[in-house]
UniProtKB/TrEMBL annotation:
The lineage of its organism: Eukaryota, Metazoa, Chordata, Craniata, Vertebrata. GO terms for cellular component: cytosol; nucleus. This is Decapping nuclease. It comes from Knipowitschia caucasica. GO terms for molecular function: metal ion binding; mRNA 5'-diphosphatase activity; nuclease activity; nucleotide binding; RNA binding. It catalyses: a 5'-end NAD(+)-phospho-ribonucleoside in snoRNA + H2O = a 5'-end phospho-ribonucleoside in snoRNA + NAD(+) + H(+); a 5'-end FAD-phospho-ribonucleoside in mRNA + H2O = a 5'-end phospho-ribonucleoside in mRNA + FAD + H(+); a 5'-end CoA-ribonucleoside in mRNA + H2O = 3'-dephospho-CoA + a 5'-end phospho-ribonucleoside in mRNA + H(+).
Amino acid sequence: MNLPIEVGCFSLDSERRFFNDRRQLRYYAEPALNPSFDLKDGFKDRYVKRDESVKEKLDHILRWITSNKAKVTTKDSSKPTLDVDFVMWRGHLTKLLTTPYENREGWMFAVTRFRGTIYISEVETEAARRDRDNRTERHSEMMYWGYKFEQYMCADKIESSPDPSGVVNTNEAYCTVVRTRLATHKLLFSGEVDCRVREPKDPPSCYVELKTSAEICTPKQRSNFHRFKLLKWWAQSFMPGVPQVVAGFRDHDGIVVKVETFQISKMSQLIKGENNCWKPTVCMNFCNDFLTFVKDVVSEDDPSVVYLFSWEPRRDVGFTIHRDSQYGFLPEWYINEITR
Ligand code: 0WD
Ligand code: CA
């Protein structure tokens, strides 16, 4: 695997407006030795939640591409073309990497080829839609806890401190845009980054991923944490080259009782004590094989033709082909901007 290179970044503000800059990047603030962050605080009265029924698909990444054409196109022929094989969200890669070990949730990806580049955009499965519609109040609050933890751990400016009295607004995001290679596949993807360290260090090695997780009290819980949680954390941060995850362990009442740092490069060592545990190479091989399969299947170069790939636990990957359907996801403005 080639090293991931950051080729750009963008920010989404409190109203989900796009900016081709780092304005939403926050700074990591080392917590006190024994913190007791209350993650419940503000859920009822200081929470602005992004509208999850709005499906943004690849729109923000496409916007970034059109604003930064020179960085990602080659002009060796008469028409400029993107010099990558695949464009997608980092979250899509995470799902592909963890597929060999996933036994609960399937996935569905819409895939289309346009001017040689293959675009991949997730489609919400029926089951995921049901889970989202039937979310309990408890579950909604627990989803808030992760964002509240970010607020305790991040400062808006390099010289400032976190402000836990503020509003948590999940429209806001800072995203890195990364180029890398997985075997022969050239990838361009974007992922949301929680914060960076204050010390002068280049991206992506300055970045920090923040997570919350249930406090570990028994050997069984520790084993599950290693086998399932660390796999997800590793897969998410490995591809963009984010070197560390800072985890807040919380009790049932949403109080953080311990903060611990995990190095991505040490994760696969950390879990070697577990039997039949996950292996990075199994993840990478599956992802590589899937992308090879997609290159082969997605042969028509036409954004009105969408190939839907789907997978369910204990099944093989399947696909269907759709012409001029509801699944098309490359917007007119993008096609025009790239074609002209
Ligand atoms: O399927 C996806 N991953 C999609 C992501 C589909 C459509 C849009 N997005 C975009 C948004 O623009 C967002 O800013 O998600 C961006 C983040 O993308 P990602 O980095 O590829 O997503 P992922 O790695 O799954 O999640 C990173 C963080 C999450 O943090 P935790 O610590 O829980 O992993 O992004 C947030 C969440 O805070 N997040 C999202 N934010 C907006 N829309 C979404 C989403 N669909 N999913 C996760
Ligand atoms: Ca996070």
